[in-house]
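[Solved] Which block belongs to which protein?

Original post:
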Amino acid sequence: MDLISEVLISYDMPHTYITIYNHNINVYELAHKIKEWAFDNWYSIDVYPTQTNEGKMYGVSISKLWKWGEHPNWYKSTYRKTEYEAVFEAGKWILEILNNNKQE
């Protein structure tokens, strides 16, 4: 399953919203839903603006949330031109991890 379908289904969105090719979607609302979906799956997506040699970029850090008594795990950091692109990239990475864990 792709990231958008996974996120929309997990929030009981009607099936018509999953067929996004025929509809306009708010990318900022979708990015927010991806962050909520990640949190529900014990991951944190933190986005921050930064200056790079290529100009203003958005950094994203992905970490695994921890339960009491466990140590938090930091997983990945990357940069994208927009905040929502950074969140989408993080969400795709988390979905890949979750799918790999299901197969084990």
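(Second protein starts here: sequence line, then its structure tokens.)
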Amino acid sequence: MSSHRQWTERGLAWIGAFDSIPLLAIVETMRSLDLFKESTLSHYLNMTLSNKLQRLFEPPPPPSKPKRAYKKRRPKAGGQTAAAIR
């Protein structure tokens, strides 16, 4: 989290963000899953906190632009079509 200086500089919002994250519940869930060694819990908890704080402090990415609908082109006036060439 020290890599995100702009987060820590937000003062009370930074502290308030931690109040909104259920840290003990997250750690208990991680332990109950039996996926993490006790020695690696801190690493994965750091990743989890970073993701949660990112959602709180950084705006979501802008939605992608919708793809343009394909429009069938009309043949040019006076031009030959494939059927007329045969």
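Accepted answer:
You had them paired correctly. Confirming on the second one: The radius of gyration is 27 Å.
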